[in-house]
Amino acid sequence: MTIPFNIPPKSSNEEKYIAESILNRKLSGEGSFNKRCADWFNKTLPTRMTVITPSCTSALEMAMVLADVGPGDEVIVPSFTFTSTANVIALYGATPVFVDVLPSTMNIDVLAIESAITSRTKAIIPVHYAGVGCEMDKIMALANQYRLLVIEDAAQGLLATFKGRALGTWGHMAAFSFHETKNVVCGEGGCLVINEPSLIQRAEIVRDKGTNRQQFINGQIDKYTWQDKGSSYLLSELSAAFLLSQLEEARLITSKRLAIWRQYHTKLERLEKDGHLKRMIVPTDAEHNGHIYYLILKNETAKIALLSYLKNYGIQCTSHYVPLHSSPAGLKYGRAVGSMKITSDHSSRLLRLPMFADLLPDQAGLIIEKIYAFFEAA
Questions:
Q1: Does 222 have pLDDT greater than 90?
Q2: Which residues, 6 or more positions from 11, have their beta carbon under 8 angstroms from its beta carbon?
């Protein structure tokens, strides 16, 4: 038996909605399916405005434009994150400033954020790792104190909450991902959620190549023209049709993942008590979405050995991010502030187990069985 690390979820109406979008003869990004996806976010989170984008990366790029991030500016990010989080900062000529994470959640350390703030700091991008919320109340308090923008990287955070409030609704803006590795997917795709009212009018221009085309569509003007910086931040209707079907079943998909997550967490408890590993931690004030289940092994050697052992049985596990502060581009375009001890240490010992909505309990049981067998044979 081969157990892959990920299989994208299937929902009920994907083919039906795609067929409808073709019949509608409207394939670009201003059609009804884009609107219905945006409406889902606006009502479910809720939020003031949602732009459905070609990727989470493009959503973060759009956020950089709206935040007027440019040369001379600094944006604080965790070093333990995907390249997009920092790359969009460098792309606009600003400096990503890397800080350490908490050992409990692998989320950005609020104390490290404050130590990294300078007169050049423009924004903070907290990353909700594994769908577990950052300490957003503390981050927003810090941002308000220093008059900084907060852009949540909620790529992994759909339908998760912190202190009862949806991830993506705390910051001034937030970016989500619908890449095929995420809980809800459309192959490639993302969205930018805008919570700050003063950004909405400009967002309509930035998302549509810097033009006031939306006003033209609304009948407010008789022609449109170039108004501001922008790009093509709209998702095609075909992808939006697929996405809508997934969003309609997002809670069902999440519940399936959570069931597998709980199975892992319960059954692996004894290995933690015996000192072989550490299970991931979800703080009591965070409600996660089962996006990732990871283990922290004793050392990198043990992680590599377990990874190889499980691979021999057809079980595809993986590590995660290489710390950005030590990457070639990170050294070239960014700078690190403070100790990176947790990021460097934990990233080398972190192992992710297979996690997807259609993973069967028996398959999860086999994975757990093999993990126990590995330690029993050691």
A1: no
A2: 245, 246, 248, 249, 253
